[in-house]
Amino acid sequence: MAFEYAPAPESRSIVDIKASYGLFIDGDFVDGHGSSFKTINPATEETLAEIAEASDADVDLAVKAARRAFRGWSRMSGKERAKYLFRIARIIQERGRELAVLESIDNGKPIKESRDVDVPIVAAHFFYYAGWADKLEHAGLGANPQPLGVAGQVIPWNFPLLMLAWKIAPALACGNTVVLKPAETTPLTALLFAEICQQADLPPGVVNIVTGAGSTGQALVGHSDVDKVAFTGSTGVGKAIARAIAGTDKKATLELGGKAANIVFDDAPIDQAIEGIVGGIFFNQGHVCCAGSRLLVQESVADEVLSRLKRRMGTLRVGDPLDKNTDIGAINSREQLDRIRELAGIGEEEGAERWAPECDLPSSGFWFPPTIFTGVTQAHRIAREEVFGPVLSVLTFRTPAEAVEKANNTPYGLSAGVWTEKGSLILHMANELRAGVVWANTFNKFDPASPFGGYKESGYGREGGRQGLAAYLKAEEA
Amino acid sequence: MARIDVRKTYKLYIGGAFPRSESGHSYEVTDSLGKFVANAALASRKDVRDAVVAARKAFGGWSARTAYNRGQVLYRIAEVMEDRRPQFEEAVKQSEGGTAAAARAQVDAAVDRLVWYAGWADKLAQVVGNANPVAGPFFNHSAPEPTGLVGVLAPQSSSLLGLVSVVAPVVVTGNTAVVVSSYDRPLPAVTFAEVLATSDVPGGVINILTGDAAALGPWLAAHMDVNAIDLAGVAGSTELATSLEVAAADNLKRVRRAPAAEPDWSADPGIGAMTAFVETKTVWHPIGI
């Protein structure tokens, strides 16, 4: 049954995108010394703005500014630092609609997600860590814990502003200063955040934003005066960073890839499980490192779950990210679309059965319909590799032990889901699953108070909660 | 006529058994004055692989034990060590030189450290775990879990206290360990292995290889079934430590970096050696009717 919906677009008049943007260094927007690149709207392929690409020299200037600012910022009382963070949190709330629209335009994610998930959690993150700034002696590192210094932070394009908040809020609360590089395809909300820092009268140099691609990130991570590296992105780049900082004193937090199992037992609350499966893999176009990209369903209910899942997928609306009714927006870039198409093609070649509901995709922009593969084995590449798109691999199991075995049979270990009404089975599975976050009878929930991060090749360190704070502190030296 | 000594050739400790090195090699161990004491097995790459297999096999059972039980097992090691104090004192004095009093103090400290770590087994989760007050109707809870299989390059100088100080914090939280002993001072580690074999530690939980950290470290650091590595044994060897960190990045091992110089192991250890090898797991569940 298909419902027709009239278009309900969110107005983009609230955002004012400039023709070009410089770098944000030492409290001001400055011209870079490198070349520039364009950021586009992935739903239309229209060019949004020209962005400066920070050169090694620009990165050096930014790190120097952060170092200069560190002295004052780290010595400021936590109570005062907190007030800056509270200010920022408030401004984010006040400018929430503007941030949400800008995020959807630059990233392609549906406005209902940027509006109802990304931006509120961004504000919550700043509120949460603001409150920590004057309570650091309770963080578990002794009476007078110290900030690490200058943090070099590199973030991905899937949750541009949210990842910025995960990085910047705890760093600043602890008295560190930061140089942050947003992803090259989604720099705009980070640059708007720079304006918010100005609006909050944050001291110059405490936050510096350098836009660019991989080489800018490399220069930042490799800079000799950076004390802490925080990275969210691919496992491949995470390993390169771990090699690059070998033999140094730099501390690192790495949030990398995942291939989460979402496990549905035969006694699961099926309606809720279907919503959890859909949210687990199609939320944010599947551009989620903790996405539930492997559905493990108990054999006895596999047919029922699949038929209900397909019916539900038929109601998902793919299209204009700014339309308030849109469930699935645009794939973030042509490069990512090519990658998803390639892996989906390999899924078919390797013998899995592909299914997607009929849906009209816009003629311009980057789109991929919500897709499932059945008949998938553990050897298939779509069951092993992170697709980072709206593609679900379905496998079956008979016993809890088999589910554990299959779920853990991956080099990743970021997240997992369990669906059953049996409490003891939930806790058993939660114990057995080698993953940093286990969602039981829910999926893809995030909160600033809740630590997030992976086992094995999903990286190390935690973001969120007290653990996320401790990643930016060290015990006072004797 | 003076009695002729029975000279000893010690073996490795892998999976609860005492095999010779697969390579067939051994090396002469001398005391601090250079006098021959015994032969020790010279562990090879193949021995590292065998030890990793044993440690992986032991991980499921060991990590699933209750924290209380792991504490009991560690305390039992301390009890058995206490019984063998003279042997340990002799081994430490032979290995490190110094006075009998200094050797005795080190043995005391090593036994006490085991007792201290044994007590942590059922407390660490309460100290570093959290109930998380999320903004929604959810139960949300974080607790530490063992990282998995940890490679440990034991300190080169402190042959017993240093060894215990890097091994106990790894296994008390439920990890299993493949340990490379001090090269020049392996005999306290050999005696420690004999203690392990006669206490309640399941085979494979702690595996001890005597040999050269510089030769074995690269295999351990590059092994894809090792989850973490402690580089204490290459303290001060900057180049080697860096290359081991680079190799460890291949599967993103958690690395406890090599210090610039071997630390004073008698200092308060804090909880850092335990928290370096645990993972925080966070579990969510809705609250409702």
Query: What is the name of the CATH architecture of the largest domain in chain A?
Result: 3-Layer(aba) Sandwich
Largest interface (CB < 8 Å): A-B, 42 and 36 residues
Oligomer: heterodimer
Strand content of chain A: 15-25%
What is the CATH C-level name of the largest domain in chain A? Answer: Alpha Beta
Work out the helicity level of chain B. Answer: 40-55%
* Number of H- or I-type helical stretches of chain B: 10
Q: Brief overview, please?
A:
The complex is a heterodimer of chains A (478) and B (289). Chain A has 478 residues and is of the alpha/beta class.
Defining traits:
heterodimer; A: 478 residues; alpha/beta; Aldehyde Dehydrogenase, Chain A, domain 1; Aldehyde Dehydrogenase, Chain A, domain 2; 2 domains; seven-stranded mixed sheet; globular; B: 289 residues; three-stranded antiparallel sheet; 10 strands
How would you characterize this protein structure?
- The complex is a heterodimer of chains A (478) and B (289).
- Chain A folds into two domains: 20-256 and 456-474, Aldehyde Dehydrogenase, Chain A, domain 1 (3-Layer(aba) Sandwich), CATH 3.40.605.10; 261-440, 3-Layer(aba) Sandwich (Aldehyde Dehydrogenase, Chain A, domain 2).
- Helices cover 40% and strands 17% of the residues of chain A.
- Chain A has 15 helices and 20 strands.
- In chain A, the strands form five sheets. A seven-stranded mixed beta sheet of chain A has the order 14-15-16-13-12-17-18, with helices on both faces. In chain A, strands 9-8-7-10-11-19 form a six-stranded mixed beta sheet, with helices on both faces.
- In chain A, β15, α12 (381-384) and β16 form a beta-alpha-beta unit.
- In chain A, α3 packs across α4 (111-132) and α4 (111-132) runs parallel beside α5.
- In chain A, 60% of the residues are buried.
- The model of chain A has no long low-confidence stretch (mean pLDDT 97).
- With 289 residues, chain B is an alpha/beta fold.
- Chain B has one domain: Aldehyde Dehydrogenase, Chain A, domain 1 (3-Layer(aba) Sandwich), CATH 3.40.605.
- Helix content of chain B is 43%, strand content 18%.
- Chain B has helices at 45-64, 67-83, 85-96, 100-120, 124-128, 161-172, 187-197, 213-222, 238-248, 272-275, and strands at residues 26-30, 36-41, 130-131, 138-146, 149-153, 176-180, 206-209, 228-230, 254-256, 278-286.
- Chain B has a five-stranded parallel beta sheet, with helices on both faces. A three-stranded antiparallel beta sheet of chain B has the order 3-4-10.
- The longest helix of chain B is centred in the middle third of the chain and has 21 residues, at 100-120.
- Chain B is globular, with a radius of gyration of 20 Å.
- The interface between A and B is large, with 42 and 36 residues.
- β18 (437-440) of chain A pairs parallel with β10 of chain B.
